[in-house]
Design goal:
Strand order of the largest sheet: 10-11-15-14
Strand content: 15-25%
Number of helices: 11
CATH superfamily of the domain at 278-383: Urease metallochaperone UreE, N-terminal domain
Number of strands: 15
CATH architecture of the domain at 278-383: Sandwich
Largest sheet: 4 strands, mixed
Helix content: 25-40%
Shape: elongated
Structural class: alpha+beta
Distance between the termini: 87 Å
Radius of gyration: 34 Å
CATH class of the domain at 278-383: Mainly Beta
CATH topology of the domain at 278-383: HSP40/DNAj peptide-binding domain
Length: 384
Amino acid sequence: MSMRDWVAKDFYATLGVPRDASPEAIKKAYRKLARTLHPDKNPGDGKAEQRFKDVSEAYTVLSDESRRREYDEARSVFGSGGPRFGGSGSTGGGTPFDPSDLVGGAAGDRVSGLGDLFGGLFGDRRRGGRAAARGADVETEATLDFAESIRGVTVPLRLASPGTCKTCFGAGARPGTAPRTCSRCRGSGIVTRNQGAFAFSEPCRDCRGTGQIVDDPCPECAGAGVTTQTRTITVRVPPGVSDGQRIRIPGRGSPGERGAPAGDLYVRVHVRGHELFSRKGDDLTLAVPISFPEAVLGATIKVPTLDGAVSVKIPAGTASGRTFRLRGKGVQRSDGKIGDLLVTVEVAVPANLSAEARELLEKYAVAQPDDPRPHITARTAGGG
């Protein structure tokens, strides 16, 4: 993409964010648009597909701190509201200034010595032309069952993001051809010219600072070397992830330019609820009903865990709401330690009693006239 194309596009408007948007706001806007415009959700919709590509391109630039800074600097100088110079000899109303002319103008007919200004955009001779940019980070979501989030699971993820063109393998040239080294700058992307006692370096006008020239562009990517692709990758989600947690997987994002490192993949995890268990930090919680005789007389009951049933001894005289801790039956922590299962017993009160059961219960009330609320009875005695 030429500098003219780059600065002419308002990537902030494409994502619908202000120029001072934080990286988090940019990512949030991108995720929302990508979900809405994804080709899978808009089959056959060419406008949505092009919009998706525009959004991906904007995020690729704005999500990278250095590329965003370069883009902002270029836009501030050459974008809308930037300087517009008239043609030679013009005193106003002349031809608008075109940054491509600065890069491609003949030696001596434009302002020179702009190596510092374009250093970030086109690199320098030490780097051999414009530095290849690291790939953009990619975000996606995965929904897990409750048990999968506790134990860990391997899941396939389908991603749509910019990727290396499969037709030209990122070279940008039509298959069977190859980019050639720029003869003017000899692949450095920079040319130097002398003006008296001074030497000035500037981006090469022939290759536009890339060091290579594509004579026959790839028909698939139009010479960019990158296309929007759908790919499926397998990701191992570690044990113990919680709902809403964001997992970083290095090097599984979009591939970088011309062999530069790939970006990272971020997976936002959603966990389905469980019919029995809940989670509290590294502990699991479970509510278990017990009968009145079990609470009074004591009992040994079976309770479920994620690894099978275990026995729990209920002492005689157990109050409703008491919690028993089963160690090592919870969530595995990152340090290898495992949380506990907290079993809370709740005395179940029967809604209906047989005539015999009611008679026996009334005899029990007479035989065991304990007051379970003496502190309240004392305050209500005599109406006080």
